[in-house]
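Hi there, hope your week has been kind to you so far. It would help a lot if you went through both lines with me. No rush at all, and the record is pasted right below:

***
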Amino acid sequence: MTRNLEMNLGIISISDIIKKYFEYYPDDILTKIQLAHKGPFYKYSFVGNDGINRHSVKFNAQTGEVIKNTVKSLKPKDQNPTRREAKKLNLENMLPLSQINDIALNAVPVSTPVQWELDRKRRNTLWKVEITDEKGSNMHEVKIDAQNGSILQTKLKT
């Protein structure tokens, strides 16, 4: 059996944690998902909204336990259905996170991924993968289309 990124990190798969988010907020659209090693373990962070309230939920990526759940009223401009649709992540036909990670690692000369973030820019849903060397210097960011895997941008963060 091939091990994927989530298995290697000992975390819940991205598809399973998305399902878990929607158990809490079934009427939401998602506008951001992040996976990062914060403190003693990996955390998934979600931002979504139902047109009235903004929901921010942090999960322990290993156990799926909710660490923090915040609800705030949306600003009137963010309640606009057209604006909401423009910020909505496209979760359909996404490439597996392992494949996105491999594409990012092949695009830069460093090899330690530290953060993965799913975001929306214009019409594209994209992964931003931050990768560094073992010393924690030379941080690179690779932006990859979440559906087709094309590299949209690479840059050295200073």
Summary: The first strand starts at residue 29 and ends at 38. The radius of gyration is 16 Å. The chain has two domains: 5-87, 97-157.
